[in-house]
Amino acid sequence: MGFGIGDLFWIFLLLSSLQPIWQKRQIEYRRLRALQEFQQERKSRVILLIHRQESISLLGIPLSRYITIEDSEQILRAIRLTPSDIPIDLILHTPGGLVLATEQIARALIRHQSKVTVFIPHYAMSGGTMLALAADEIIMDANAVLGPVDPQLGNLPAASILKVVKDKPISDIDDQTLIMADQAVKAIQQVQRFVRTLLKDNIPKQKVLPENIEPIIEALTTGRVTHDYPITVEEATEMGLPVNVGLPHSIYELMDLYPQPQGGRPTVQYIPMPYDDRRPILPTPKGRPLEEPNQRI
After folding, report:
1. 46 and 35 in contact (C-beta within 8 Å)?
2. Cα dist. 72→105, 109, 135 in Å?
3. CA distances from 25 to 32, 48, 52 (A)
4. Contact assessment for residue 287 and residue 236, using Cβ atoms and an 8 Å cutoff
5. β-pair partners for 89
6. Contact at 8 Å (CB) between 245 and 181?
7. Residues paired with residue 155 on neighbouring β-strands, in sequence order
8. C-alpha to C-alpha distance for 181 and 171, rounded to whole angstroms
9. Prior bond to 148 cis, omega within 30?
10. Among candidate residues 90, 174, 163, the one with its CA nearest the CA of residue 128
């Protein structure tokens, strides 16, 4: 019995339906292999917290990803499975997320007896910055950024709600705003108290000079700038945070395995290789650079 055109069509359809499953398995295998190699190189427990903006494939509706309770459950489990004498390396790429989940992770990190290092290849804003403050060392790409951790009540900055109450006569302020102002005071105090706990962490050693702790709290929690303000390597170093510049090249390769899902034409394209040796001389970042003579960019 021979094969006809109809049989070839059904075989093609079957193979086409299996291809996405095979590709997914392949990328999962490459991710696990890259994690294992980085763990062996660092002799540490490596944890990734990566949030990309994804879209529902059918309708194309944007769906933002952020730190959730599910994330905290997974990371707390990973920390529990890590012996106290093994360092933890946390790779962060996140816009932030739920305060409860973030604080749970941060407390678990400062309780770990060995060194905790946070790697930031692109950005760690809001709750991501809170997690970075829990680390003993923050290693950033020269162009990566952190962000303020001032509390937000819904879509409103707590500091801005307090400014309204301060600037307007109380007779002109509605009860809802007054209630929010009361909550704003409590939220700022709670965040400041928690950030102070993170910065005073001295296990395995003191990471921030005592005289820098209160100025850092003032800069990050009081709403002096907008919540999406980018804190550069230079500014974080000037504050006194334990920042170093220079990510291992393997982290960039690992990030390539967590691409932004594509729906249509790509928004950025380039040939992935150095153009030539005539590169412009850029200013040297002011963070404390890591010595890595064979590091590739």
Report:
1. yes
2. 6, 11, 16
3. 11, 19, 20
4. yes
5. 46, 117
6. no
7. none
8. 15
9. no
10. 90
Q: In this predicted model, what pLDDT tens digit does every residue of 211-257 receive, in sequence order?
A: 999 999 999 999 999 999 999 999 999 999 999 999 999 999 999 99
Please state at what angle helix 175-199 crosses helix 99-111, rounded to 10 degrees: 20
What are residue 45's DSSP bridge partners?
Answer: 88
User: Nearest-CA neighbor of 82 among 113, 42, 110, 37?
Assistant: 113
Tokens (6 digits) for 10: 């059904």
pLDDT in tens, 150-176: 999 988 999 999 999 999 999 999 999
pTM of the model: 0.83
Report residue 93 as tokens. Answer: 């790429």
Q: Residue type for 69, please?
A: I
Q: Residue 163 corresponds to which amino acid?
A: K
Please check whether residue 242 is in contact with residue 138, taking contact to mean a CB–CB distance below 8 angstroms: yes
Alpha carbons 65 and 228: distance in angstroms, whole number: 16
CA 248 – CA 259 distance, rounded (Å): 19
